[in-house]
């Protein structure tokens, strides 16, 4: 399975890792959610299911989930260059978790955000990088 960048960025949204409003004068997203307890979300099936449903437009969203949806295209096109280092770490952890533990959900996210497969390969490279 070749993951897509859009799906990983979407995971950031689900996990609240990307800020609700990027500041116009800055090159990074707001770090408001950099202290997010990603392990608590990944290890709580009910909470994780809620975030996944939000991302797939199958359920309600938190404010940060709705806002990240607005930034998915930009993040996809820029390989998340506006993400803070912490946001990148959170995204990598969440993406790896879904690929290994929830492959069907991961597949659904991929198909939802990259129907044409034009971003195949980006997320795999991103998830395996250390920047």
From TrEMBL:
<keyword id="KW-0732">Signal</keyword>
<dbReference type="Pfam" id="PF03392">
    <property type="entry name" value="OS-D"/>
</dbReference>
<dbReference type="InterPro" id="IPR036682">
    <property type="entry name" value="OS_D_A10/PebIII_sf"/>
</dbReference>
<dbReference type="InterPro" id="IPR005055">
    <property type="entry name" value="A10/PebIII"/>
</dbReference>
<protein>
    <recommendedName>
        <fullName>Chemosensory protein</fullName>
    </recommendedName>
</protein>
<feature type="signal peptide">
    <location>
        <begin position="1"/>
        <end position="20"/>
    </location>
</feature>
């Amino acid at each position: 399975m070749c993951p897509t960048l859009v799906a990983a960025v979407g995971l950031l949204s689900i996990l609240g890792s990307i800020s609700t409003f990027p500041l116009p004068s800055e090159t990074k997203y707001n770090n408001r959610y950099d202290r997010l307890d990603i392990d608590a979300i990944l290890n709580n099936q009910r909470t994780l299911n809620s975030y996944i449903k939000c991302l797939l437009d199958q359920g309600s969203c938190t404010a940060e989930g709705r806002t990240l949806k607005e930034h998915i295209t930009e993040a996809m096109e820029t390989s998340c260059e506006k993400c803070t280092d912490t946001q990148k770490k959170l995204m990598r952890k969440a993406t790896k978790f879904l690929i290994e533990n929830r492959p069907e959900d991961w597949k659904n996210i991929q198909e939802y955000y990259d129907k044409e497969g034009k971003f195949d390969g980006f997320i795999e490279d991103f998830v395996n990088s250390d920047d």
